[in-house]
Design goal:
Strand order of the largest sheet: 1-7-6-4-5
CATH superfamily of the largest domain: Thiolase/Chalcone synthase
Order of helices and strands: EEHHEHEHEHEHHHEEEHEHEHHHEE
CATH topology of the largest domain: Peroxisomal Thiolase, Chain A, domain 1
CATH class of the largest domain: Alpha Beta
Radius of gyration: 20 Å
Distance between the termini: 17 Å
Helix content: 25-40%
Shape: globular
Strand content: 15-25%
Number of strands: 13
Length: 354
């Protein structure tokens, strides 16, 4: 038995923020952003839009696409690094909003950019063990709250006023990562298949905690006493810290290595893959992954130019778009790869039933 993706859905904020828009809030250049990252614009959640509200919309869309009633879902897995609250996580909020049963488990997982990959594996394990027949998997992010320019942006949208000197300096100091992220959610419904060679063929997942400082948020956790205070906010400990060069080197090595190991385990080669759905971190990492794998750019599509890095949302959003565009259809073999904070990384193989 294996879990196969039978429906997908996405939810994206309507608010588009272009690279040109960002020049209102920090010292940056639109061409520099696009040439260094590949991002041209991103979606930013409006006040009141959260990871759980976007995740719920994506989940409902995926259920509708699959033709499955919420009451048929046996388990829910929600991946995010931006929960609505410190506690609880978003899974119970999504469960309630979607109208799932209350006698099922709802898991929250925190593998950041690799979250959806880990969620797929978890869903497949539940299906394969016979504990579930239908599992709903969601990857949802709202990074707006941690953006160093968001307060100035919200005020500008409301009054047309520009940033304060302090807001400008903070956004400029963090521009290397602050231009990368966007908001959005994707979801997939996995259902048991008895047909050999269909569905999730296998995964390979890895974690190396020695690399946790590649991307991390130093504040807002039990390592701080108190959990949060004004000093942390002034120091910027509530926003991500990123070691860009080292992150690049690890990502372009780890993703191809895990992909090749998984293919070898299943007796497949890259010539057997119809499309590679890779985490959308930035264009340079995607290009590095393509080169390491020795494949054409067409096989590793990109949508981060429209959405930026939506962390746990990148894989399901891109998969849904490719499916909608008929890039993924009956009989297609998809290779998922991701690398994220933790560090967590890995790959998954999925074959769409013919």
């Amino acid at each position: 038995m294996a879990g196969t993706i039978v429906g997908t859905g996405v939810a994206l904020p309507s608010q588009v923020v272009t690279n040109e828009d960002l020049t209102r809030f920090m010292d940056t250049d639109p061409e520099w952003i696009s040439s260094r990252t590949g991002v041209e614009e991103r979606r930013i959640a409006a006040p009141g839009e959260t990871s759980s509200t976007l995740g719920s919309k994506a989940a409902l869309a995926a259920l509708e696409d699959a033709g499955i009633d919420p009451g048929e879902v046996d388990a829910l897995v929600v991946a995010t690094m931006t929960p609505d609250f410190y506690a609880p996580g978003p899974a119970p909020l999504v469960q309630h909003a979607v109208g799932l049963r209350t006698d099922i488990p709802a898991f929250c997982i925190r593998q950041q950019c690799s979250g959806f990959l880990y969620a797929l594996d978890m869903a497949d394990a539940m299906i394969g063990s016979g504990r579930a027949e239908t599992v709903l998997v969601v990857g949802a992010e709202v990074h707006a709250g941690v953006q160093p320019w968001i307060k100035a942006f919200d005020r500008w949208k409301e009054t047309g006023a520009g940033p304060t000197d302090e807001e400008w300096d903070s956004a400029t100091a963090n521009r290397a990562w602050a231009v990368l992220f966007g908001d959005g959610a994707g979801a997939a419904v996995l259902r048991r298949t008895e047909r050999e060679g269909d569905g999730l063929l296998g995964t390979t997942l890895h974690t190396d905690g020695s690399m946790f400082e590649l991307i991390h948020v130093p504040g807002l956790g039990s390592a701080s006493r108190p959990l949060v205070d004004a000093d942390q906010v002034r120091a910027g400990d509530h926003i991500p810290r990123m070691q860009g060069p080292m992150l690049y080197r690890q990502a372009v090595r780890k993703m191809p290595a895990s992909a090749n190991a998984l293919l070898e385990r299943h007796g497949l080669g890259l010539e057997d893959i119809d499309v590679v759905v890779a985490h959308q971190a930035n264009a340079r990492i995607l290009d590095g992954v393509r080169k390491q794998l020795g494949i054409d750019a067409e096989l590793v599509p990109m949508n981060l130019d429209k959405y930026g890095n939506t962390t746990a949302g990148t894989l399901p959003i891109l998969y849904h778009e490719l499916k909608t565009a008929d890039r993924i259809g009956p009989g297609s073999t998809t290779l998922f790869v991701a690398f994220g904070a933790g560090a967590h990384w890995g790959a998954a193989l999925h074959r769409t039933p013919s």
